[in-house]
Amino acid sequence: MSRTFLKMNGLGNDFVVIETASQPFEPTPEAIRAIAKRGDGGIGCDQVIAIDPPRSAGASAYVRFWNADGEVAGACGNGTRCVAWLLMQPAGKDSVAFDTVAGRLSGQMAGDKRVTVDMGRPGLDWTQIPLSEEMNTERVELQVGPIDAPLVHTPVCVSMGNPHVVFFVDAPVTDAFATGTGSLVEHHPLFPQGVNVGFAHVQSRDHIRLKVWERGAGLTLACGTGACAAQVAAVRRGLTDRTATVEFESGSLVIEWREADGHVIMTGPITLEYTGKLPEKVVA
Ligand SMILES: N[C@@H](CCC[C@H](N)C(=O)O)C(=O)O
User: Fold this and answer.
1) Given the residues 45, 157, 223, 228, the one annotated as active site
2) Is this model's pTM higher than 0.90 or not?
3) Where do runs of H (alpha helix) occur along the chain?
4) Is 157 a catalytic residue?
């Protein structure tokens, strides 16, 4: 049976979104890789997202995320905004709640194709990232490059339902630098589940420039949970105020780490690109 998908993106971080109410979706890692492949019969995306029927009261859906490499991801910020919009817009609602493996998330319309999502509280303990050994996650003993002249060092680690390491850099990094360094750090033994690697340049107390090498997807145009993690990391280090604009080359997100309840609130755009049918050979 052919299966419909929606192609969406948040700041160019792109997704194949599949609604599963009428047809279950239990893909193998190979099927995810075939969908995510750019060219050669694939649709091409950074993540695949399934919107399942709700499993608990008060939720409109249960949402699952996979990286392009076929592995499950616990969270996806840009995808969360896209899903929230899809669950609100056709129903004419302006707020929604749904569940993921990392917990309950909620969204609100914030303008035309603009959505605010509550990403919950960040995990700050080393066991929550997780790290393979006990460490202060505000100043992690990790450096890349020569011992006496490291390229990047002493990052902050944050879980947004998925693992992030954030290096503060003196100037925005190039794609080549993020790729070379990020791919090394992603698989460092300190991160038993791998890690998303952010390079954050703090321009002012309310403005961060960011590039993220994503676990399981590589260098993406933007990473929503990466933006949340960078802002949480910057507040922990005393570098930014509670609300900051996090700028990628493809556009910006506004991230607040709310003082009142410790939740991270993200606002940004969504784009619905097109609707299509999955090729028979990758239908799972
Ligand atoms: N693009 C995402 C993050 C997707 C998951 C990540 N690569 C992981 O493995 O944790 C976002 O917008 O947050």
Assistant:
1) 223
2) yes
3) 29-36, 77-88, 175-186, 224-236
4) no
d(CA 102, CA 90): 26
pLDDT digits over 177-202, tens only?
999 999 999 999 999 999 999 999 99
Determine whether the annotation assigns residue 259 to a binding site: no
Cα–Cα distance measured from residue 157 to residue 276, given in angstroms and rounded to the nearest whole number: 38
Rounded to the nearest whole angstrom, what is the distance from the C-alpha of residue 88 to the centroid of ligand 1? 22
- The ligand 1 site (C-beta within 6 Å) comprises 13, 46-47, 67, 73, 76-79, 162, 196, 214-217, 220, 223-226
Element (H, E) at 18: strand 13-19
Spell out the domains of the chain, with CATH numbers in brackets.
Answer: 4-120+270-282 (3.10.310.10), 143-262 (3.10.310.10)
**Is 136 among the annotated ligand-binding positions?**
no
Ligand 1 centroid distance, CA of 213 (Å): 10
Q: Among residues 252, 251, 229, which one has the least CA distance to residue 240?
A: 229
pLDDT in tens, 37-90: 999 889 999 999 999 999 999 999 999 999 999 999 999 999 999 999 999 999
Quote the ipTM score. 0.99
Q: From ligand 1's centre to the CA of 106, what distance in Å?
A: 17
Residue 82 among the catalytic residues: no
Q: What is the residue type of 205?
A: R
Check pLDDT > 90 for residue 280. no
